[in-house]
Model the fold of this input.
Amino acid sequence: MRFLAHNGIFDIHERQEDHEPTYALTSASKLLVSGSDHCLSPMVLLNTDQLLTSTYHQLGEWIRGEDLSVFETAYGTSGWRFFFEKNPEYFRLFNEAMASDSRIVDLALKNCTSVFEGLDPIVDVGGGTGTTARIICDAFPKLKNDCVMQIY
Done:
């Protein structure tokens, strides 16, 4: 907790009566509270998962090799095949992480409406459940009536 407080994720205070540390949420740590509208904890869980982070131990071999991705070097298959076919639980975690990240777009749209002015169709390229496209279309109803595609 001290490390996280030192890096601004939490505030640290000292109780007057016994000088013990107490911690409080900051703007950054509020994004990790489950059940909130803009919770990024699924993204943190995905990006800190040992199966995923251990792929980086293979970077040297991957650079010297012929595989298309470090994931392929580490696990012998593409990341997409690993998620979609071999590990449905990781696929669920991946989708939750992508959706939580997409909800942050909602925050950005509140102050950046000019970004999508004058656009007609919108294409959601990637995977997941189309959360980003839905958020954009909700903020810009005209886009909802135009072509909205998902490409996986």
